[in-house]
């Protein structure tokens, strides 16, 4: 999801897929992992574990656990394992477990609605928040940074998912005018499409190019439902982050394809409370160590997204 403050061109975020046979069954097949999910355990026996006073300064929601919110409908970043739906996999989930391991905590990944994550994390008094942090493909923008701190860890652009052959020739926002397009609730992509229609608040920076021939928007809380609209022909296209489009195009070769990238990659961030600097510093340091020892790049490589590393690879 990409904000106006980071754009030089008009920009905006998330998808899932099935075959022609039942949607529920197809959805499970589409989510087969293209990477390797790592299972980590608390590192309490690590001589480098922080002192009890340091851990106490983190103001954790649950003692001994790192509670991480994520909208787990967004493959390949965060989604349910088809073989075990209660287990969440993806490159964000592997990174989350590695953070917990390095802090000698048990990872507690909680499925959350994308639009509620920042309010639930930042709103309550420190120590009473629902989550300690979130990693969920959040594009860094000024609006979010007014509420939370964001540690850059990945880059992603925006792109279009269409049926094979692109029968409606949708390759840009301009070509979406008059077409049915699906997007996820509370995303920059949805805001951009609304601005294209002249019905948004104008914050995305997207001109109202479809004001006289509006995009027919359909939107859902789950990215799974967004992509299914394209799969079953209810929508002409969906609009989401580039890695999501690439993932479902590969998983459904011959059925779905990319309509093209509309926005160049820009940074995504790990979401942290502004008043919990001790935990934010610990996560920042853990990420730096993961970059130095190669763990960070290995996790991205396992999922085929190493080219979207942040900072960009030279």
Topology readout:
Blueprint: H1 23-30, H2 52-57, E1 65-70, E2 73-74, E3 78-81, E4 84-89, H3 91-102, E5 106-111, H4 114-122, E6 133-139, H5 142-145, E7 149-163, E8 180-184, H6 188-196, E9 216-220, H7 223-231, E10 237-241, H8 242-251, E11 256-272, H9 277-293, H10 295-302
Parallel strand pairs: 1-5, 1-6, 8-9, 8-10
Antiparallel strand pairs: 2-3, 3-4, 6-11, 7-10, 7-11
Description of the molecule:
- It is a single chain.
- Helices cover 29% and strands 25% of the residues.
- It has helices spanning 23-30, 52-57, 91-102, 114-122, 142-145, 188-196, 223-231, 242-251, 277-293, 295-302, and strands at 65-70, 73-74, 78-81, 84-89, 106-111, 133-139, 149-163, 180-184, 216-220, 237-241, 256-272.
- With 314 residues, the chain is an alpha/beta fold.
- The chain folds into two domains: 52-155 and 266-308, Periplasmic binding protein-like II (D-Maltodextrin-Binding Protein, domain 2, 3-Layer(aba) Sandwich), CATH 3.40.190.10; 158-265, 3-Layer(aba) Sandwich (D-Maltodextrin-Binding Protein, domain 2), CATH 3.40.190.
- Residues 1-45 have low confidence and may be disordered.
- The relative contact order is 0.22.
- The radius of gyration is 19 Å and the shape is globular.
- The protein has an eight-stranded mixed sheet, sandwiched between helices. Strands 2-3-4 form a three-stranded antiparallel sheet.
- The protein is built from ten helices and eleven strands.
């Amino acid at each position: 999801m990409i904000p106006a403050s980071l754009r030089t061109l008009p920009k905006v975020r998330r998808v899932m897929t099935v075959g022609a046979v039942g949607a529920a069954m197809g959805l499970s097949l589409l989510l087969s992992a293209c990477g390797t999910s790592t299972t980590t355990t608390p590192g309490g026996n690590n001589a480098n574990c922080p002192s009890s006073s340091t851990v106490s300064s983190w103001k954790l929601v649950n003692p001994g656990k790192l509670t991480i919110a994520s909208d787990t409908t967004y493959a390949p970043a965060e989604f349910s394992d088809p073989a075990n739906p209660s287990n969440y996999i993806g490159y964000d989930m592997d990174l989350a477990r590695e953070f917990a391991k390095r802090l000698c905590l048990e990872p507690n990944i909680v499925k959350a609605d994308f639009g509620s994550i920042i309010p639930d994390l930042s709103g309550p008094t420190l120590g009473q928040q629902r989550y300690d942090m979130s990693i969920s493909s959040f594009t860094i923008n000024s609006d979010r940074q007014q509420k939370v701190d964001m540690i850059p860890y990945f880059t992603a652009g925006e792109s279009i998912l269409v049926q094979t052959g692109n029968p409606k020739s949708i390759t840009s926002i301009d070509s979406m005018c008059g077409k049915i397009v699906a997007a996820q609730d509370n995303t920059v992509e949805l805001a951009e499409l609304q601005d294209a229609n002249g019905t948004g608040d104008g914050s995305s920076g997207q001109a109202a190019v479809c004001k006289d021939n509006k995009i027919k928007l359909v939107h859902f809380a789950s990215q799974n439902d967004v992509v299914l609209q394209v799969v079953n022909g209810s929508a002409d296209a969906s609009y989401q982050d580039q890695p999501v489009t690439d993932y479902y195009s590969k998983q459904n070769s011959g059925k779905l394809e990319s309509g093209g990238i509309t926005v160049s990659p820009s940074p995504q961030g790990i979401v942290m409370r502004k008043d919990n600097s001790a935990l934010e510093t610990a996560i920042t340091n853990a990420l730096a160590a993961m970059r130095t020892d190669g763990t960070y790049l290995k996790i991205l490589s396992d999922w085929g997204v190493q080219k979207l590393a942040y900072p960009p690879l030279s």
